[in-house]
Write a structure and sequence with these properties.
By secondary structure, the chain is an alpha+beta fold. The protein is built from 13 helices and 16 strands. Helix content is 31%, strand content 17%. Strand 2 and strand 3 form a beta hairpin. Helix 2 packs across helix 7.
Length: 455
């Protein structure tokens, strides 16, 4: 859903300013990616590998190396980000730690060479040339529209946040020690060449980043050199290290990553509280008290049988549940994902066209960016400061209370919202609401936020 404020709005302003000045975007105006829809984008992203084969044989299983000899694709990759872009980008006010890290692998450990405060381009270039340091540029899509477009479509495709970092490493140097990540990784080689070594995971589908020592990882399972236009994929947990060979002045690649904290385990942690909350309304067994002093006991073995029985009751209920309420994962995704890339020359989103009336036909815009969630009216917590006390509906604490973003409607509007979301077009008068006033109000609310258009 397009946003009018927050982190990505600021990013959008930065990108618009960059678009007025950047010339590198014009160097390759003809994109070799197919942006028609998320599916076509990913198909062109991993081409010539077919999507079915990718998910059947590689996804979360093993690395994939796609080496291409396509000058047009190599030129397109180079246009995404170049070493020569740094001078202009530094003039816009970049900061160490926030935007750029300077690092080098020394004796199997990462040595960070960051300075304090704002990045000075001449100092950055000096560290790069003389100290053989790797430049790590965080989230370059803030300044590069084409990367924004790629990542935005990938977020729609995966239904998961997609991040990126650019790594620029001088010849004969290595930025990071052998390590594994907690994300699915796609490497696009943009400039120069990079020598890669991949190793068998010590933790399959790892949930956290970790550095591994050389004496533990053994021999590489894969070893190769990427050139511009090549693509590499490997699953989270894959141990890897990379260096720029001697004779190659420098290497630039972008790491595009996704599926952080997006496993079945994460989904269970997110969805089970809502399932318990709803089930307890109807199942008196879930509302009976826990044994006296259970919370004071160290050994709770006596309660495990009862807990197992309750979990089986929940499992039986789950079999007949059509919807699971996501408490945090959906909200985190929709609040932090990239909004649609409307282009540098586009005006900010404002409602336009006809006002929706009862006899109007409407269509949802930005379908891939709209999510419908169902939430309880309030948290059912038992904090000391609120125990046995009434709640103020219109008060929120500055700390410890998550803010709700997006539009909020009564639960009675759910069917109508699903109707709009699932239909290519829908007549306002046919919305599943009782009164014409409710139907018009819903349509007007969505139109005001630029989420529907009148056909």
């Amino acid at each position: 859903m397009p946003k009018k404020g927050g982190k990505h709005a600021e990013m959008g302003k930065e990108m618009q300013a960059q678009c007025k000045r950047a010339k590198v975007e014009e160097a390759c105006s003809l994109s070799v990616m197919n942006f028609e829809n998320p599916d076509s984008l990913f198909g062109s992203f991993i081409s010539p590998i077919k999507q079915e084969m990718f998910f059947r044989e590689y996804w979360e299983q093993k690395p994939l190396l796609v080496q291409r000899n396509d000058p047009l694709l190599a030129a397109y990759y180079q246009s995404l980000f170049q070493l020569s872009d740094l001078k202009e980008l530094c003039s816009q006010g970049l900061y160490y730690g926030q935007d750029i890290n300077i690092c080098r692998c020394v004796n199997g450990k990462k040595k960070v060479l960051n300075k304090e405060g704002k990045v000075n381009y001449m100092q950055l270039k000096k560290d790069f040339d003389q100290k053989k340091a790797t430049i790590q540029f965080h989230q370059p899509q803030r300044f590069k529209e084409e990367l924004w477009k790629i990542q935005e479509k990938l977020e729609c495709y995966f239904g998961s946040l997609v991040g990126s970092n650019v790594y620029i490493t001088p010849q004969g140097s290595q930025g990071l020690p052998p390590h594994y990540d907690d994300v699915e990784v796609f490497i696009l080689q943009l400039e120069g060449k990079k020598h890669w070594r991949l190793y068998k995971p010590t933790v399959h589908l790892a949930r956290e980043y970790n550095v591994e020592s050389e004496d533990r990882i053994g021999n590489p399972t894969h070893e190769f050199t990427l050139k511009p236009g090549d693509l590499l994929y490997f699953p989270r947990g894959t141990i890897h290290q990379a260096d720029t060979p001697l004779g190659i002045s420098y290497s630039t690649h972008v790491t595009i990553s996704t599926y952080q904290n997006n496993s079945w385990g994460d989904f269970l942690l997110d969805a089970i509280p809502g399932l318990v909350f709803d089930s307890a309304k109807e199942d008196v067994v879930l509302r009976t008290s826990i044994p006296r002093q259970l919370l004071m006991q160290v050994d709770t073995a006596d309660s495990t049988k009862k807990l197992s029985s309750l979990l089986r009751r929940l499992a039986d209920r789950l079999e007949n549940t059509r919807e699971l309420r996501s408490s945090d994962m959906k909200k985190d995704f929709i609040m932090n994902r990239l909004p649609p890339c409307l282009g540098c020359d586009s005006d900010p989103l404002t409602p336009g066209g006809k006002l929706p009336k009862i006899d109007s036909k409407i269509r949802l815009q930005f379908r891939d960016h709209a999510i419908i969630t169902v939430e309880p009216d309030q948290e059912n917590s038992n904090r000391r400061e609120t125990h046995m006390m009434g709640r103020e509906d219109d008060t929120t604490s500055e700390e410890g209370t998550s803010q709700t973003h997006g539009l909020r409607f009564p639960l009675s509007y759910l069917d109508a919202l699903k109707q709009i979301w699932s239909s290519s077009t829908v007549n306002v008068k046919e919305l599943n609401l009782i009164s014409d006033e409710e139907k018009e109000n819903l349509a007007l609310s969505l139109w005001t936020e630029c989420l529907i258009e009148v056909i």
